[in-house]
């Protein structure tokens, strides 16, 4: 997206000169001649950067006073100060207040462009650093080789460059935000901000303020910029949009359609250019039927729908995910990486993972720190957390040793084969062909063996013993 730069100078020819230099580089500009015009322009939409003259004739505030107010209300807004009568003391004072840099008139076009480029890049890096701190090292990649994940990747590649709104559905913890961030990163807005708002964690009375911002006096002494305005030129993620109150949904419809809104407590129209991506772990069609979600909002958000599969739907990705999380966790904690034994990995693949990828990551973090045994030895199935160990197929834990030793060979072999094949079929999500290939049997022979052992499948691909 093209940057949007506000030029504040009392001389019209200087404003025109700077605008011409920037416009030639494809940069959009706006102009202001005094403090009131400058604040009005910032109020209409926060710019990417401000070029601000120190001496403004006929203005109620000079450049340094304007800078102080901008830094108070928009701490992350980059500002370059210019002056034809500057000195070192003035430059130092401006930088102390918060200006990115200071440039004296007359200046060369290439110096101005270099400074603008560096200021915007510094602001972008600062914003990304803040996002990373908030996310505490969250993933920005989609891990896995399953067909389900590959379909999601293909959808991302198709929709990312288009600018269309996207509705991402899927269970909690499956990776919907990762998909949203990948869409942003591969879009033409990648250089702009990515701003997320979790509708599920926000009180209804606060949600509208967080979305649209507030004027001074509504929620504190100064104006607050909402997420819609923060995301100008980039992407806004509305996480768990089904939790948004109906009244707010109506206002979102208008903002999506017109890209215009008003801050809470104000009447000034704020124009933005924002791509909206929404996520939901609920069936929005069912929410519409129950009167809890607006149909017109659904159709505006769901221009391109993408469904993220649950972890249980892509069990073959669990080994690569588990090893990836182990590597990341070890790097973060300074502990040595632990390997997974085949029995432990099979148990992880057999578990249903109600918390999906997020739960798997937490389990791997726990295993790195809490799993018993020599850290140089592989993690075994009997050291897995209780919630997984409770449903782990018996053969993997081998706690039926005493029972088997009390049986004749034929019956003991049947117990072992039943538990072994049950574990393997469950491991591969009920896929008989893949199980047969892994255990070294013909598919038809495996079917007969399972039937003879009393192992049958359910509608959801799970196995049970009669």
From TrEMBL:
SUPFAM superfamilies from the UniProt entry: CheY-like (SSF52172), Homeodomain-like (SSF46689), P-loop containing nucleoside triphosphate hydrolases (SSF52540)
Pinpoint the Response regulatory domain residues. Answer: 4-120
Main localization, broad class: cytoplasm
Annotated InterPro entries: AAA+_ATPase, AAA_lid_NorR, CheY-like_superfamily, Homeodomain-like_sf, HTH_Fis, P-loop_NTPase, Sig_transdc_resp-reg_receiver, Sigma_54_int
Q: Where is the Sigma-54 factor interaction domain?
A: 142-369
At the top level, the lineage of the source is: Bacteria
In Gene Ontology terms, what is one molecular function of this protein?
sequence-specific DNA binding
Question: Which GO cellular component terms are attached?
Answer: cytoplasm
Query: What positions are modified (4-aspartylphosphate)?
Result: 53
* One GO biological process term: regulation of DNA-templated transcription
Q: What compartments host this protein?
A: Cytoplasm
Q: What is this protein called?
A: Sigma-54-dependent Fis family transcriptional regulator
UniProt source species: Azospirillum humicireducens
